[in-house]
Specification:
322 residues; alpha/beta; 434 Repressor (Amino-terminal Domain); Endonuclease, Chain A
């Protein structure tokens, strides 16, 4: 099990103030070694650099929003890499921030064009709400995906049958083709686990999620067998939070934390709700969630015991069948 270094966002907070520059060599190099998530990482790099430039010039988000005929919330979404960029907006912001070197402007504007390349999830626009589209983009770019789940097996680790049963719970009135589109989307997300450079997925799953027979006994047996098998992969860590642990640090609900290969990009905490989500990106708040996630990893059964625990739960469920 890997040791988690302090959040990159915390390191940024401790850095001394410096004159804002585009640092062209760094931005150009950022594109060469990125995994297959290019547009997603490019979007976040652009947002990170825009935030640094604004803060270095002591420009408020409101003033920046006014300069591009928008709002402070739009500036926030741009700086967090959660919206597409208009070249006109970025050009106006660079002028506001005093970036007048043609080469430096060209580097960032080239990243803007890369950031606006459509993602594969655009083909699922009929079943992907805007708030979840943001997450899909971030998930594709992440190098580490940490999660805690209380009700279900994490989506990236679900079988097709189990995913279908979970989706039907939330979309019980949806037509069959709408359900199947969502199942296809979930299966497509899982392809990142088989990339040549897959992210490290580290999930802590509450025991209750493994004992709840979603989709019936056969579906659950298949899911448990898949989870035990996939937990043995080198880029996947699964831990089970047993009932015997009692209360734990994340009693409030599921948590996902995304970390990126680029140290300049802040970690993101994703809190999914029924019909929306909260994206936590303030350094102090992110640090708190990292503390909770690391406590969960300590309180849960070790990853080396996961497959055995999962098989025991499956066997016990089988013995209770009539």
């Amino acid at each position: 099990m890997e040791t988690v270094r302090p959040p990159a966002s915390a390191q940024l907070q401790g850095a001394p103030p410096q004159r804002a520059q585009l640092q062209g060599a760094q931005l150009q190099g950022a594109g060469r070694d990125r995994p297959q998530s290019g547009p997603a990482v490019a979007r976040m790099l652009v947002g990170t650099q825009l935030r640094r430039l604004r803060e270095a010039r002591d420009v408020t988000a409101k003033d920046a929003g006014d300069a591009i005929r928008g709002s402070s919330s739009k500036i926030s979404r741009m700086e967090c890499g959660r919206t597409s960029f208009k070249l006109r907006d970025v050009t106006d912001l660079l002028s506001l921030y005093g970036v007048d070197n043609d080469d430096e402007r060209a580097i960032l504007l080239a990243l803007v064009e890369e950031a606006n390349v459509p993602g594969w999830w655009d083909a699922f626009g009929d079943v992907v709400p805007r708030w979840f589209e943001d997450y899909l983009r971030l998930e594709q770019a992440a190098r580490v995906i940490r999660s805690f789940e209380t009700q279900f097996v994490p989506g990236l680790l679900q079988t097709q049958e189990y995913a279908r049963a979970v989706i039907r719970l939330g979309y019980d009135a949806a037509p069959t083709d709408g359900v199947e589109r969502r199942v296809s989307l979930r299966m497509r997300r899982q392809q990142l686990l088989r990339r040549p450079d897959p992210p490290h997925v580290w999930a802590v799953i509450d025991e209750a999620a493994l004992r709840r027979p979603i989709g019936g006994a056969a579906t659950m047996r298949g899911q448990l067998a898949h989870l035990a098998e996939i937990s043995e992969l080198p880029n996947i860590t699964v831990q089970i939070m047993p009932f015997s642990a009692g209360g734990h640090a994340a009693a409030g609900g599921p948590i996902t934390i995304l970390r990126f290969a680029e140290d300049r990009i802040r970690d993101v905490v994703f809190l999914e709700q029924l019909n929306s989500a909260v994206y936590v990106d303030k350094p102090a708040d992110i640090g708190r969630y990292w503390h909770v996630m690391n406590r969960l990893a300590i309180e849960a059964a070790p990853a080396t015991a996961a497959a055995e625990i999962i098989h025991q739960i499956s066997d016990q469920a089988g013995s209770r069948r009539p």
